[in-house]
Input
Amino acid sequence: MPNEKSSGLAAVLSFFISGLGQIYNGQILKGIIILLIQGINGLLTFILIGYIFLPIVWLFAIIDAYRSAEKINRRNFRRYN
Output
């Protein structure tokens, strides 16, 4: 199927670098925004609040990348069948 995305790969990419899974899925702006937010969260660890938001955004990025890839694949499956 054309444009099929691996949901596992998208999740693993976001596991290592938040936002990279979204970029892999073709959601470039969303991926860049998540990368920027995580950069800001990294800076905010100096005043401790980053320790709260960094893992929250990290988990969101992983789950969102996985679900977005699944949604893209379902949409493509319906289109080509």
About this structure: DSSP finds four helices and no strands in the chain.
